[in-house]
Amino acid sequence: MATATTLQPPLPCPATAAAAHDIFAGDEQQQQKKKPFYLEEEEDDLVDDDLLYLDDDLRQQVMSAERHLCSLDEKYDHALQEIHNLTKEFVADEAEMRLMLPPFAPLVAAELDEILSDDLAVVTIPHHHGGGGCGERFVVPVLPSLDRALLTPPASVALHGGKSMALVAVLPPDAAATAAAAFEVSGADMPELTYDDIGGMEEQKREVREAIELPLTQPELFAAAGIDPPRGVLLYGPPGTGKTMLVKAVARATANAAAFFRLTGADLVAGGGARMVRDVFRLAREKSPSIVFIDEADAVAAARRDGGDGDGGAARHVNRVLIELLTQMDGFDGDGDAGVRVIMATNNAGDMDPALLRPGRIDRKVEFTAPRSTEERRMVLDACAKGMSLDGGVDLDDVAKRRDGMSAAEIAAVCREAGMRAIRDGRCTVTGDDFDQGYHAVVGKMPRDVAAEFQFYN
Fold first, then answer.
1. How far, in Å, CA of 317 to CA of 324, rounded?
2. Can 107-171 and 374-457 be said to share one CATH topology?
């Protein structure tokens, strides 16, 4: 009597992942040899005929054995599929290990610019702080295990510090909070300058205090009047006319009422400028009420151009910074009178983008000029010479009358040079002759084209 027989090789159990890879990579003929086989169809028919002559118990045992063989066959196919999946995971893990070696390499912070494919991305690595430029752009591989849903420009990402420079992680949105906090001015860094230390500029002081200081120190006045205070103020004028000095006085006057952040155009032109704008404004809102001061704003707020002059990469980067700045100042965040006030200073207001200067973003524009009258120059002289030991024969009116168009910075330089000449002679008292020499030293060193530029502003 014929009986059903099978040959069942042992289930593959590779000792290493490499062996598993070999099993998966084998051709179909090799896999077929390892698959269990059954009796030929004719022999199977004979077995079915023989089952007729078996008693019920033996027949049930044979049929149960055949069902068990089918179950083992399914388990074998499932095991092969598991080997296939594990081999794929092994290959992916091996690729990640190659990207991550050496394990002690530091990670590099960068900004995601563009996704080229599932495996490649374009990133910008910023220059060192204050280094200028718009950073360097690289096409880098992307770690296979990264969640592609998180790779949304301009996300903050981490690159492997080795030769591969692979994109290995997506940083959380608040990862740059520490970098943004570096721009906050507080404590010992807060300027000591007050409004009384600034000579002249009475009209500029009034306009800036109304727009920035009053909404922070006396918000009830605006609430009673039923008006929204200005969101942004632009200070413009030639160099040396006191724009930054007045902002320092504002920072001191509002030190107990608002947080103060100071940036420069150079900080934002460097790589990651758009992200830095976003992070600084996010932190400013968290600490609101607050003031964000952007000095030399024309570096990132100049009118947009197509960048077709061969510097397209830098132009596109600056445009991204400007667009981010416009977005943050757009007024959709509900800052209200307890939100963020923005002060910008520039020497080239004519180059500023019109979209930035519209009401709702920049609500007040304050012009700074060189002192235009003898009285104004005398007020600046009094402020600069307030702490100096002056000889009784010093006539500050005579110094104030000497030249039209002297900026506040020039007048301060005259006082400083006069004091240096007294120290050079071993004296503690500054004389009128010291002021004469200081005046000629400052005015004589100023190029003619600079003097002509000042006359243009005036």
1. 11
2. no
